[in-house]
Amino acid sequence: MPEWVSQPSAVFPSADYISSVGSATSRDNAEMKALQGLASVFGQAVKSSSVASQRMTQAKAEGKVATANVSAFSQDILRTVDVDSLIGVETKEFWFDGNETWYAVAVLDKEKASDIYSDLIRKNTSAISAFVASAESNGKSLEAYAALDFAEDIALENEGHLKKLSVIKPEVAAFLKDGFPSPKKLHAQKAELSKRIPICVIVEGEDGSRLASAFSEAISSLGFRGTLDSGERYVLSAQVSFERSDATDGKTTRCRYAAEGFLFDMESGQKLCPFKISGREGHVEYSEAKVRAVKAMEAKIKKDFAQTFDACLKNFEAK
């Protein structure tokens, strides 16, 4: 039995390395356990890479956000272990006991990992500065809001890198800590900007004013301010409709409802965030069916449109 199986620090000194040994009945599972053990050193819950935001994944692929190469690991490992916890990590050795157990030792070279994380933090700090500058140059606009929102996401990414670096090389992490704005600071800056971006809400059709209030509430949930001033740069325009339909049993009357529209940028002429909301409610009396339909539409606007609007902002082209 190699010495590292029972005492990895004897082979990989703790002053220079972080190591973890995993054992299982298969070589692949032994490696997986060793890597999971190493990831746990950072206090990270083992997670699937699929939970990473789509925007961040795309930004990394396009080089807008710094990332490190961990392609040496299998897809099974990348799906199971937090990718950032694999930066600077190698599976150094395997050993089979000749009976039924495989052993693997995963090792993180502190010096190498420190250099990689420091480089990622510096590059991302530069990206944050660029997005903040973009927000400042775009004034009171959704583009500026989106830029700050993206800067906040990158700052969260950097904060994660910094936490790992503080385990690997605390003195280096302390040196870099004040070099970039915190996610909380950027979130506050974004929230302050959204208060200064009014959005005019115009809803045409039956119960338009009541449903306009629902749209305004959805907008307000993201920090923006709904208004009736049609002179604003951004106008949310929606058309609502209700339609009666009787069930074949003759006992139920249904009310179909629909809302369709978009957010119009009066300055650029662009139609943003197109949306559709629809459904139906039933009752013996059509009047009651319609009352239910209006309530259902209000609920969908407050929830579904708010989510659509948020997703739209996150999909703005990051410049």
Briefly characterize the structure.
With 319 residues, the chain is an alpha/beta fold. It contains eleven helices and eight strands.
Task: Characterize the largest beta sheet: strand count, sense, and whether it forms a barrel.
Answer: 5 strands, mixed
Count of helical regions: 11
Strand coverage percent: 15-25%
Indicate the percent of residues in helices.
40-55%
What is the string of SSEs from the N terminus onward? HHEHHHEEHHHHEHEEEEH
Indicate the structural class: alpha/beta
Number of strands: 8
Low-confidence stretches: 45-52
Shape: elongated
In angstroms, what separates the terminal alpha carbons? Answer: 55 Å
**Spatial order of strands in the largest sheet:** 5-4-6-7-8
Question: Mind explaining what this structure looks like?
Answer:
This protein has 319 residues and is an alpha/beta fold. The protein is built from eleven helices and eight strands. The chain has a five-stranded mixed β-sheet. Strands 1-3-2 form a three-stranded antiparallel β-sheet. Helix 7 (142-168) runs antiparallel to helix 9 (183-195). The relative contact order is 0.09.
Write the layout of secondary structure elements.
Blueprint: H1 3-6, H2 8-11, E1 17-24, H3 27-40, H4 54-61, H5 75-80, E2 89-96, E3 102-109, H6 110-137, H7 142-168, H8 170-176, H9 183-195, E4 198-204, H10 208-220, E5 225-227, E6 234-246, E7 253-265, E8 271-283, H11 286-314
Parallel strand pairs: 4-5, 4-6
Antiparallel strand pairs: 1-3, 2-3, 6-7, 7-8
Helix pairs in contact: 6-7, 7-8, 7-9, 10-11
